[in-house]
Amino acid sequence: MTDTGTGHRQVRLWPLYAGGFLGPFGGAMVNTILPELADGLASDIATMGSALTAYMAPFAALMIVSGTIARRWGRARTVRGAYVAYALASLVCVAAGSALPFLAGRALQGCANAFTTPLLIAMIVDLVPPARRGVALGTYAGMQAAGQAFAPLIGGLAAEVDFRLAFVASAVAALLLAVLTPGMRGERPATVTREQWRSLANRRLARAGGIAFCAQFASTALMVVGALVAADRFGVAPAGRGLLVACYGLAGLLSGRLTGAATDRYGLRRVGSVALLVLAAATACVGVAPWLTFLGGVICIAGIAGTGTRVLTNTLGISSTPANPSGAMSLTLSAQFLGGAAVPLILPLYPLGAELTCAVATVVALVGLTIAARPPAHP
To answer: What is the C-alpha separation between 260 and 247, in angstroms, rounded?
Structure first.
């Protein structure tokens, strides 16, 4: 795919979109293969359950500063180097014979990916004309949703043969992206000043981060509780639950460009607020789903709404801080992934009822809607 970028230059955007898939995929690919990991690495379920944390903790922490640091090295150069590092980290996971080196490889994957996700969005914004940014960011958001939702399914399919195949595929994909990622014409490494760090302390960026946290919390809770409801209420097997959750990503992927186009036509704030409202309603419906088909439909609707919220928060984040857009995007995405990581805090409510668990997640989504509906604050 090509698009007219800065200076009316034709560029390939699809490698940037593909990078959006790889980030969430890398984090969630182990979620459905914990027993296989435990067997293959002579460990146990409890230890291998930390594989997600080993990835997410350095990922979220380094993302706070990765966008700003990348100014010194250049964004395209940084992204390419990060892909190579990600591939090497994936090969560490492939070669690991026990839990400790495997978890070290997962941590290195998270570190590397912190230097891709926010920078890809900043590159897209620079390469696409303002009139088409909604479509471009919608496509990227759809790929993010797809990566998050398809990861458990793809990981499970790989584990049917050998869990290491999932990491081999990740390494190959990362190396291909390192080669195919387009350059940024005219970009030169720049010294990061104290003023650029200080510019990140603004209310617009805080608003973007708050909405991102709330939206991702609700989306992740919807998928987690949706899988539990499918198992406990409808007796769905693990493979079926993986397919059900994948509906979220598939709907987000297919609707990404249309959602972005709606943003360009009707306005970011209006479309984003509607998406948050729909996400809140869908989250509430998961807890009371009377039929499996109803549950699947709600998850599909939530996938469309989730893509809309990502377009909203990505746009708000990148535009909040003109002096340091990459750094602003890093902080916004760090808040987003922190929202997903916070979902286990409400899971102890699940034995009391799926309705109660989803009600709490719905309230969080409505808090995000309240923040989005308020007029933009001055820096």
So the answer is: 20
Helix, strand, coil shares, percent, the chain, to 5:
80, 0, 15
> Which H/E stretch holds residue 201?
none
pLDDT in tens, 11-66: 678 889 888 888 888 877 886 677 788 889 998 877 877 787 788 888 888 888 88
Distance CA 171, CA 22 (A): 10
Spatial distance between the Cα atoms of 65 and 73, rounded to a whole number of angstroms: 13
| Of 223, 354, 372, residue with least CA distance to 289 | 354
**Which residue, among 235, 239, 340, 365, has the nearest Cα to 295 in the 3D structure?**
235
CB 364 within 8 A of CB 214: yes
CA dihedral (243, 247, 250, 254) positive or negative: positive
- For 140-186, write each residue's pLDDT tens digit: 888 887 887 778 778 877 888 888 998 999 999 999 999 998 876 65
pTM (whole model) above 0.90: no
| Residue 102: other Cβ atoms inside 10 A | 27
Residue with tokens 């180097």: 81
Q: Do residues 302 and 145 make contact, with C-beta atoms less than 8 angstroms apart?
A: no
